[in-house]
Amino acid sequence: MAIKATQTRLVIGNSSDAWDFSGVSNSLDVSLSGEKIENTRFQDTAKTYTTGDASGTITQNGYFDNTSAGSFEQEIAESITNAETLYVSAIYGTNQAAPVAYIAPATSTESMAINSPVSGLITVNGSWFDGTGIKRGLQVYKGTISLISTTTYIDTGAVGSAGGVAWIWVTAVTGTATSATILLQSDDNTGFATPLTEATFTFSGKGAIQQTLSGTIDRYLRLSTTSLGGATNFTVCVVAAVSGVTYAVA
């Protein structure tokens, strides 16, 4: 059954803040392309090509809803002015157990446009280039954590042998957090009898963090919160990209 487009999420963050801008967005597009470079030589009987670097963009369309601090318009305008390094994730199928995510890591805002038609609503549109290369991953968890606990696992479909990348966006903190800690764990069984820690996210406030994964990444992934850091709760979104499983190795 086809999935409604409303089951889409946009999260953006930098080292000191992070936002879930799903509530002001109505369109989110990911564009990927692989360059073909012709390398035909004398005496070849047909054209030949080599594959160049892959490239892509994430483009959002949304609404101008307010002018307060933390609004989409303000944050995106500031990211251009300050040349901020951003981590942008377009997540699709959020009603699924493991929504698909496309992440533009270490990117920056390519453009922002505000449109104000007389007969319609004011809209704000943003776009981000591929940064260090758009990767396909899976959302491990999105929600509010208030206890030392683990989350429901997701199934990546296979074991990875070459590491990968994981990201966390901490979009809200209630109270004061000091070195709150969340582990990304993997295991080869759904009971997590012998979980392995693949990444450790430590934070004391809002923001986005990227962690490199190495070696074998087992099929099942979950989060394990080991410290709230004194906070009452925090809201996070975590995505993992496993090399050779969720994205192809060039």
Beginning-to-end CA distance, first to last residue: 32 Å
What is the residue-averaged pLDDT? Answer: 94
SS strand fraction: over 45%
**Sheet with the most strands, sense and barrel status:** 8 strands, antiparallel
Output the radius of gyration. 20 Å
Shape: globular
Taking pLDDT < 50 over at least 5 consecutive residues as the criterion, the unreliable ranges are: none
* Secondary structure tally: strands: 16
Structural class: mainly beta
Indicate how many domains the architecture comprises. 1
Order of helices and strands: EEEEHEEEEEEEEEEEE
Number of helices: 1
Helix fraction by DSSP (H/I, runs of at least 4)? under 10%
Query: Could you give the order of strands across the largest sheet?
Result: 2-1-5-6-9-16-11-14
Explained architecture:
- This protein is mainly beta and 250 residues long.
- It has one domain (8-34, 54-242).
- It is 4% helix and 53% strand.
- The protein is built from one helix and 16 strands.
- It has an eight-stranded antiparallel β-sheet, with no helix packed on it.
- A hairpin with a 4-residue loop joins strand 1 and strand 2 (18-20).
- The longest helix is centred in the N-terminal third of the chain and has 10 residues, at 72-81.
- The model has no long low-confidence stretch (mean pLDDT 94).
